[in-house]
């Protein structure tokens, strides 16, 4: 599959509270807003929130295993967290090729995450990825 400017891919996902707790253990980021429902109730979010970089790791997983997939290298990411992500809610990753530098096998890909039910954009970003099979001139 050769990808070109304008090509898009979407992936729906949810992250459970148990997965958030495991991520907190692995990373050491045990901020109570992520892992303590009683504490989180008193925060501006009203309930626990997913670590921002956990959402980014799902983008990385999709880009490395599904689109563009095998052989892809994630070279960089600019990101803006626009809103909280909550455990148990459904989200959609929206990827779109914005630019291809064929001779280098690199693409600039818009990387957004949107809350499915509310359509709220919660993560807005742009990644640079390399794949010798899919990003060619």
TrEMBL record:
A Pfam cross-reference name: MaoC_dehydratas
Any GO molecular function: (3R)-hydroxyacyl-[acyl-carrier-protein] dehydratase activity
Family matches, as InterPro entries: HotDog_dom_sf (IPR029069), MaoC-like_dom (IPR002539), UPF0336/Enoyl-CoA_hydratase (IPR050965)
MaoC-like domain boundaries: 10-117
One annotated GO biological process: fatty acid biosynthetic process
The protein's name: 3-hydroxybutyryl-CoA dehydratase
Originating organism: Persicobacter diffluens
